[in-house]
Amino acid sequence: MIIKAIEKQNVVDEVYDQIKSNIITAKWKPGDKIPSENELCQMFNVSRVSVRSAIQKLRAVGIITTHHGKGSFVSPSINESILNSFIPVMNLSEQEFLDMMEFRETIEFKCIDLAVERAEEKDIQQIGQALQKMIANKDDFVKYSQGDLEFHFAIVRASKNELFLKLMNAVKDAYYYYLEELNRVFGVNEESLQGHIAQYEAIRNKDAGKAKELIAIGMEENRRKIAQLKNHF
């Protein structure tokens, strides 16, 4: 079995790739039980959130199955050609993702500037409540995405600009679908959680520049992942 400790960048993808590699090379054969979450955390030197997100991605494409109370197993009848065909399907085009990111950069960045100037304590609390929903649902990408949407809408509301809020409401469904697709395909990871926590702290500390920088870093990473998705395997 080939296992390497993982550096703290692109952690979920690295865990995903190493588990998949061990299945392709028959270190873990069809029907085999893979190590427990705790064991994988120790083997890879990563957090439980990262391991769960990687397993969620593997389960979503049918590479492994999970049985409550028993653990996760390599799916039966898996071979290398089948594995290499299991590319997560994005239900939005690359251009649709990029369009939404450009919209966010135009609207949300200005809303952050305004929120830092105008937010009242109740506004900061609403952002924090949305963040807590994300943290509580880090193992459920749908509920996590709902909290993610609430987080960004709370920032827009804190800007006290009704026109910006109307614009966001007009694209609310598309925005949610964009977030859900990102979290479904790439998994909820530690970097996403920590990034949102840092964004919240920056806004609470009235540091608009830091908050915008953090969002920009997250979106740039998403751009990279989307562009490389078709070559991921």
From TrEMBL:
Keyword Transcription regulation annotated: yes
CDD domains named among the record's database cross-references: WHTH_GntR
Gene3D superfamilies per the UniProt record, alphabetical: GntR ligand-binding domain-like, Winged helix-like DNA-binding domain superfamily/Winged helix DNA-binding domain
Keyword Transcription: yes
Keywords tagged on the record: DNA-binding, Transcription, Transcription regulation
HTH gntR-type domain sequence ranges: 9-77
GO MF annotations, alphabetized: DNA binding; DNA-binding transcription factor activity
InterPro entries: GntR_C, TF_FadR/GntR_C, Tscrpt_reg_HTH_GntR, WH-like_DNA-bd_sf, WH_DNA-bd_sf
Protein name (Swiss-Prot/TrEMBL): FCD domain-containing protein
Record lineage: Bacteria, Bacillati, Bacillota, Bacilli, Bacillales
